[in-house]
Amino acid sequence: MSNNTAIVEISQTASRFRSSIVLQAENKYIDVKSILGLFTTLISGHAYDLHVHGPDAEEAKKAMADVFAKHNLHVNIISD
Where's the HPr domain (predicted)? Predict the structure, then answer.
């Protein structure tokens, strides 16, 4: 499975939610709904932190965890 497929699917999944979904990669913060931002950031083998805030955050966290796992990408969902 290509990384491009993962990026499109992650972005489409994020776009279903009203919550803000931000991927933290080292010191960069990327809006997960932005395909371009993901292309420049998402590299297999890295671990990422995902910050989700908003009215449907719980559903968004579960959906995002599932789609990252499906593509074997490691993401740490930050609960705050």
Answer: 9-69
Is residue 1 packed enough to be buried (19+ CB in 10 Å), middle (13-18) or exposed (0-12)? exposed
Give residue limits of the domains in the chain. Answer: 3-78
* Residues whose CB is less than 8 angstroms from the CB of residue 69 and which lie 6 or more positions away in sequence, other chains included: none
Model pTM score: 0.86
Q: What is the pLDDT of residue 43?
A: 67
* Residue for token pair 């449907």: 56
CATH topology of domain 3-78: Histidine-containing Protein; Chain: A; (3.30.1340)
For residues 25 and 42, give the distance between their C-alpha atoms in angstroms, rounded to a whole number. Answer: 8
